[in-house]
Amino acid sequence: MKRKIILGLLAGAGAAGLIGCAATATTSETDAARRAAQVLRASFASKGMASLDRLDQDDVQRLCTEYAEQAVPPAIAERIQAQQLALVKKPASGKLIGDWKAGEKIAQEGRGMQFSDAPDGPRGGNCYACHQLSPQEISFGNIGPSLLGYGKLRGNSEAVIEYTYNKVYNSQAYSACSNMPRFGHKRILSPEQIADVVALLLDPQSPVNK
Amino acid sequence: MRLKRIPGRTGIAAAAMCAASAALAQSAADEIAKYRQMLADDNPAELAEMKGAELWKTPRGPKKASLERCDLGLGPGLVKGAYTQLPRYFADTDRVQDLESRLVTCMTTLQGWSEAEARKNPFGANSDMQALVAYIASQSKGMRMAVPMAHPKEREAYAVGKRIFFYRAGTHDFACATCHAAPDLRIRLQNLPNLLDKQGAQLAYTTWPAYRVSQGEVRTMQHRLWDCFRQQRFPDAQYTSEAITALTTYLAKNADGGIFNAPALKR
């Protein structure tokens, strides 16, 4: 039932579009935005996996750029979140919790999707770049919050599992313009790999929860 | 089923662990700072500076001319302080140029190289460009950053550069701002400068070019930004392209007033 509500919201946001929300932008800012898009297009070349179309912004990227220096207005944030949540895809098996050991490997792996990376080479989530997870790994970043004890603090109810899967799949389903990549939505990780990361966060056997 | 945000981190144990980790990160940063200081008096960048000084005055190219009449913005042949006032607008090319873009211009007009020849070897051990940049930058040591904004194209470059700084795109939705717009951030244990903060912007900009110990090379600002874009999962940023110049203008202007201290020594 809830799904219907979300789709309804989406339809509302759809036609009117997520476009044209930057009523506050001054003319010169709009000019700079237009020029920047042209300049970027003329200044890069496709290489390896990274083709030129990576510079083309989707609606979310454009809005998040628009509001980069201010809070996203609540109505727009709600729309983004509803739209992104509706785009989450679950693994074919329906299993949202995979193998935490595989999840740890994905969390450690920083390679993937750069023009210098082999297209069929390793591809990870690089979670430790921004988050603390397993206590054994002391080389972790702090752009995102510490996730040490994530499952211990939250339990693993259906609601928590669902939230965690969705969050990794599409961070903006709950937090519009989050800094975190949309790992599932942008096909950085497969639904099964995301389930493995969920296991790293929620499995009581995972070092994250020890 | 739509869920509300799960309650945030709690607990004294977690806080204590956070503090311990922060201490670890701090001690790693301290060690790196110590290491830097130990090497500071013997920066291998000096070898590149000497090579660049030779290249500057040696007649080269089809026209067998030196670069000594190259105008880096302060007049033909004036090198001292030039780097602190770049990027800037040049009337002869009718565009804003950073040092490397300007050197390409001088190598074509004065020395007679083709544009492709002048740009073909921008980075790496055998790069003349890299050595020239090291030399020219070294001649601004101790001087204050003062990037001109009098020309409309300079102001436009700044505005476009600012937009690029915040431009989110690609597979990971990253912008420069994802990592460089808040204080005290790290990727793993690597500290990230906050480029929106005056001091952060000054410290970052005034220490490039730099000899990268991990890479065994002097790296220029062009290289730094090219490699940032690679990690951002953007396509291949072209050498001396307008986007790089605009972004450099934004970063350089934000560092205004900072005392230039490069070529520096970095990890």
How would you classify the helix and strand content of chain B by structural class? mainly alpha
**Spatial shape of chain B:** globular
What top-tier CATH class of chain B fits best? Mainly Alpha
Q: Residue ranges of chain A: pLDDT <50 for 5 or more in a row?
A: 1-25
Q: What is the fold-level CATH name, i.e. the topology of chain B?
A: Cytochrome Bc1 Complex, Chain D, domain 2
Number of helices of chain B: 10
- Mean pLDDT rating of chain B: 90
Number of domains of chain B: 1
- Give the DSSP E fraction of chain B (strand runs of 2 or more residues): 5-15%
CATH architecture of the largest domain in chain A: Orthogonal Bundle
Instruction: Give the helices and strands of chain B as they follow along the chain.
Output: HHEEHHHHHEEHEEHEHE
| CATH superfamily annotation of the largest domain in chain A | Cytochrome c-like domain
Compressed to H and E, one letter per element, the order of chain A equals HHEHHHHHH
Domain count of chain A, please report it: 2
Strand proportion of chain A, as a percent range, falls in under 5%
Protein chains sharing the most extensive interface: A-B, 65 and 58 residues
Cα-to-Cα separation, first versus last residue of chain B: 48 Å
Query: What is Rg of chain B?
Result: 20 Å
Low-confidence stretches of chain B: 1-15
What would you say the CATH architecture of chain B is? Answer: Orthogonal Bundle
Radius of gyration of chain A: 19 Å
